[in-house]
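User: Before I run my own analysis I want an independent prediction to cross-check against. Here's the chain; please return only the structure tokens and, at the end, one sentence I can use as a sanity check.
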Amino acid sequence: MKFSSIPLLILLFMVNTTISPPVAPVLETRNTHNAQFTGDCGFKVDEYDSTVMWNNLRYRLNDDSKNGMLERGEKIGEVVFKVNGNVCLGYRMQNGDATWAEVGTPIYKVKGYSERFRIFLGDELFEVSNIPTAQKIGDFYDFTDKVKKISIEYPIGNSPSIDFSKEETEQFLHAFLEQEYVPFQDIYKNLSENSTHYYLRVHFHDQSVTVISYWIEDNAFTTGYGNDLIKKIITSKAENLAALSSLKP
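Assistant: Structure tokens:
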């Protein structure tokens, strides 16, 4: 089964850079640069993705996960400015900004997880999508002793899926987290036009999930590139997935 990559790439490019204002270069205080972009203008932007800026990190809504077993931790802040509908083009996100959440919406830690990976914005789960100081892919995740299994699927609704074995899951995670971080803007520019896109679904013991995009011909994720072992594991599972899909009516 082969999928056209260009529409998916365009969508994912927008999502992973987040369809949100760029980040302000100075985040410690509210930036005076933005004053000129929050007054009257001919067009107020109201189509940004659901993101929040906190502690110099940008987080994106995870709407794939079941969060019933996740618990709120301590409150660490709240939204101080709602971006959508209130800014002009040129605005830069600052700490305390959220694109959709209302002013005063609380921000909480997620019990058991690093806040550099996950936070709750109100009742919704957000995961980090931009870390200016990242060095490795592992800087974006908190997987230690938390992952139950990994599965591979196509980026379509009701896709069949194939699970990694326990050994493959352990091997993959060890290698994946140690790979060098590469910004997706740089990966995107070099992706092959016909590279096949897959989702790797990471299942946690608490029944929550996170989804990682992967392009097999380029051995590329949204935060870096795989090594030979990673490509070998995923290629094997992708072949199993193709075989399973060919049996379906």
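Sanity check: Helices lie at 5-16, 166-178, 184-190, 228-247.
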